Amino acid sequence: MDIDRLLSQIRTEIQPQIGRGRVADYIPALAEVAPDQFGMAIALATGECHGVGDWLKPFSLQSISKIFSLALALAENEESIWTRVGREPSGNAFNSLVQLEYENGIPRNPFINAGALVVTDHLSGVVDCAADAVLQLLRIESGNPDIGYDLQVAESETAHADRTLALAHFLASYGNLRGDVPTVVDEYVRQCAIAISCRDLALAGLFLARHGLRRDGSRMLSPSQTKRINAVMLTCGTYDAAGEFAYRVGLPGKSGVGGGILATVPGRCSIAVWGPGLDNRGNSVAGVAALDRFTTLTGWSVF
Amino acid sequence: MDIDRLLSQIRTEIQPQIGRGRVADYIPALAEVAPDQFGMAIALATGECHGVGDWLKPFSLQSISKIFSLALALAENEESIWTRVGREPSGNAFNSLVQLEYENGIPRNPFINAGALVVTDHLSGVVDCAADAVLQLLRIESGNPDIGYDLQVAESETAHADRTLALAHFLASYGNLRGDVPTVVDEYVRQCAIAISCRDLALAGLFLARHGLRRDGSRMLSPSQTKRINAVMLTCGTYDAAGEFAYRVGLPGKSGVGGGILATVPGRCSIAVWGPGLDNRGNSVAGVAALDRFTTLTGWSVF
Amino acid sequence: MDIDRLLSQIRTEIQPQIGRGRVADYIPALAEVAPDQFGMAIALATGECHGVGDWLKPFSLQSISKIFSLALALAENEESIWTRVGREPSGNAFNSLVQLEYENGIPRNPFINAGALVVTDHLSGVVDCAADAVLQLLRIESGNPDIGYDLQVAESETAHADRTLALAHFLASYGNLRGDVPTVVDEYVRQCAIAISCRDLALAGLFLARHGLRRDGSRMLSPSQTKRINAVMLTCGTYDAAGEFAYRVGLPGKSGVGGGILATVPGRCSIAVWGPGLDNRGNSVAGVAALDRFTTLTGWSVF
Amino acid sequence: MDIDRLLSQIRTEIQPQIGRGRVADYIPALAEVAPDQFGMAIALATGECHGVGDWLKPFSLQSISKIFSLALALAENEESIWTRVGREPSGNAFNSLVQLEYENGIPRNPFINAGALVVTDHLSGVVDCAADAVLQLLRIESGNPDIGYDLQVAESETAHADRTLALAHFLASYGNLRGDVPTVVDEYVRQCAIAISCRDLALAGLFLARHGLRRDGSRMLSPSQTKRINAVMLTCGTYDAAGEFAYRVGLPGKSGVGGGILATVPGRCSIAVWGPGLDNRGNSVAGVAALDRFTTLTGWSVF
């Protein structure tokens, strides 16, 4: 398969989708991003990486960071995380408190905000700083030591963190947040504020396609732990559109409101796409379209 | 009517209820209160005050403070408070976030915790410190300048304030909290931590029975504003037992987890009771029983 | 007090409200009612009855019938009804199934539809036909043997009864409906379809103001049972506007989507008002306004 | 791969799980099933079928029937079904009415009971009888004309159908049920009451592994429609354990309270397992264990 030609074809076919949707506007730093950008990168299991469009331009990682903090928690042999967070789809908004109240402070899964806070808190118990650990992992796996925090985004998020603080204090009221609330929220906000390119993201997520092996061949996660993350991505990775994404794309994927999506073809490759315009469920319009074309053209859907 | 004899009879009749129920134990400072205490005071519209039992012993005001902060907000001509908080029963737990999420950050009424936070926040916008304003009002109306904060309770509450902080940040995320979250929560916690006796509380609440007139005859609230508070007390003043309380007692009443209840007989008198043991809805067992006997013996129920 | 003059003054003052609001349109039979009608009747505890406007014109009783089926159930010494239905405000829509699911099939109070179905079912266990028993009570207390069912309304309701059937089957699934579902729903629908005038309704509701005594002086309910009904009316009688009604009117009242409201001044009188235009909570605009004027002019609010 | 040997090994390995869990007891006809039974069948894409244990013994199809009614609706080119039912996980109990109320009568997906009622109703609009159509499909694809309804189960279900009737009337109240409620419920109950063996079920489900091709090679569904069903199975097929099932098994699967599970390995095979003992989420304990072993031994998980 000629990956470059494939990427080029996908980009041409989804051209009408680029610029569509609405850029996240809950913080100024994200609202200013130009909507008509698009990038896509495919990292093969061999480590080879191809890209198209704005694939080298950094964007805001946002919720995609939740994959990496979860992976790090599991890599630390912290299976106990599953006593604090579930693995089932939520059927509610990603930042809802309702389910949390009915289910006594145990978030439904690690990819809704409450669940990600618990993961960050858990990880903070085993590493010095959860956000720095995520950043370090991204740098090493991508081979790019220049990946960093977008401080403007981090500050902007911090200034609009009331909902996140509410979730964190609510978790704490159920005894499901061990660290100091402002500290945990700060680490959470910072890990979301990492700026990364499609290239680096595809490479960083390659361990999910390599059954848990890192880029250097060392084992990060067991095949079973890797399968777990891919399963959670497929059932819970795209907010309230997981069923739709499973159908259209048919791959484990995790999206972020920065417009990025990381998807896995188990055993084959890792794919990162980026387009800032979001649909009404918060997923990148161009990104979903590109992944849809990808599985249609390659037949690499899991279904 | 011989009030002293009435009080004595009530106390005798409810003797078996004294010590029953469960003392609030979510903070150590309240959990230590001896359960077998009971006090009751009746302040007549004339200003005359009678009491029985531990009626001069201070207890923790807790949610009963919500009456006074609401009265102060209304007294400041702040009818605009009703755009920020409703006046209907909630049908949910007093500290639930569910309704708040479904109704976009507008608390159902001023007596659930979220509503009281909004009232405190609103009051903070017109006075220097909401908690001090409540304390000042209690001192003046009771004529007792020694009423003060129970600092041990306040500290204890502050150390267990995650649920309250969650509510406050949640309100802020909907734009329904204007002040700084920690400051508003602190003022809210302190107003709840005021220690007051039945005597002082009955006198302080007399304006509710005097159609808005303060003890010195000056007008604090209009008759209509006073009626509003009494109506909210009757429909929402006793957590999830307002219907039961309306039936058994048949008076506007507001309870607190410190074991106190303040009730109004419009035009006639103000009644304060205290017994630390709570029923499973958070209302004083002995207190409700005493008020039940009171309306049965006097026929002063509103129904 | 000159009751006729009072009624006349009220009618004049609320004239601008007559015709306002929206006539219930969920069934054709109600949608056709001319909106610019208004009637009001006051029945004194002595049995004397005064009226104004369309006070002799029958309208659809609807949910006001819930008072009478509850009274009959209690009159049959059926206190066991309280194990099947609560007495607290609901905070949800009158026909919501949500609360019912969270609270395992026990309706919050007898005045939401689910609660009224349980009461009708309960009553059916002790009388031949619950609807006929309600009709009979209305005829006897009003002295008008011509009160009857509006068959067009009953048929119309039956044809649009899916929500009611859903509630009834849902109750049955929790074991909280003993009779045959279609039969119970039919009796419920028919009791709501009774056509009655303000005059007859005020007289029929007089036992609520007479502490349980029927028109002929015989006892129907104990004072305590009567107080219970009045308390439920005040806290739950006007859908999701009970707090507002308690404030504006300050009397126990029960409304129906036919535009009627029955209110009680304990010890003094029973009042029936009718105006077909409803506010967005389902209560008669002109009716609430008239009762508001009534308590303001007489000072007979319970607060 | 030696399928018979694989099946034999799986059966040996899961032996301790056989008989575990709790047989569905909401109706007598299911409660009487002996718990220590187990069967498993694998139908290869070629049409070849292998089995082990009680793989020829019929059991109650129950919710697995939802796959076939959905497939039939889609096969009739009825994509319009997606305007009446969603495709997302629910996060609520399979028979909950709460989500339905909050989302105005549109069930979350076709595999919760409300969604399946809508599918049955939809299918009834294009075929004579939805249940018979499902039965016919099962007979043709399995090549077994003796598959039939278990009338005892059907009668038993009908006698305990209040919750289903509540759901159906509730849907009708939102205009999302077109047929006569009792008729739709009857067809729904009957399709669930089909008795079928693992062998026949695996063969009948083979079209899901053959990208929509029926056993005779004719096209039933497009590849895209087939992918859709598999995606819904993976995200919503095992009640509130879809995430767990996706992880442990990693295949699209649909379970029923009769103890059966149908799973798909796209492009390869269809698997039916049966063990009457259910876990606390309603999925067969032995069935999930057997599928878990299957994907572990074959590596045929989609992740």
| Helical content of chain A (DSSP H or I, runs of 4+) | 40-55%
Note poorly predicted spans of chain A: none
Distance between the termini of chain A: 20 Å
Q: Could you report the average pLDDT of chain A, rounded to the nearest whole number?
A: 95
CATH topology (fold) name of chain A: Beta-lactamase
As laid out across the biggest beta sheet of chain A, the strand order is 2-1-8-7-6
Number of domains of chain A: 1
Kindly report the oligomeric state of this protein: homotetramer
- The radius of gyration over CA of chain A amounts to 18 Å
Beta-strand level of the residues of chain A, as a percent range?
A: 5-15%
Which word captures the global form of chain A?
Answer: globular
How would a textbook summarize the main sheet of chain A? 5 strands, antiparallel
The CATH level-2 architecture of chain A is identified as: 3-Layer(aba) Sandwich
- Which structural class should the secondary elements of chain A be placed in? alpha+beta
Q: Which series of helices and strands of chain A comes N to C?
A: HHEEEHHHHEHHHEHHHHEEEH
What is the CATH level 1 assignment of chain A? Answer: Alpha Beta
Number of helices of chain A: 14
CATH fourth-tier homologous superfamily of chain A:
DD-peptidase/beta-lactamase superfamily
Organism (chains A, B, C, D): Flexivirga caeni
Protein name (chains A, B, C, D): Glutaminase
GO molecular function, one term (chains A, B, C, D): glutaminase activity
InterPro entries (chains A, B, C, D): Beta-lactam/transpept-like, Glutaminase
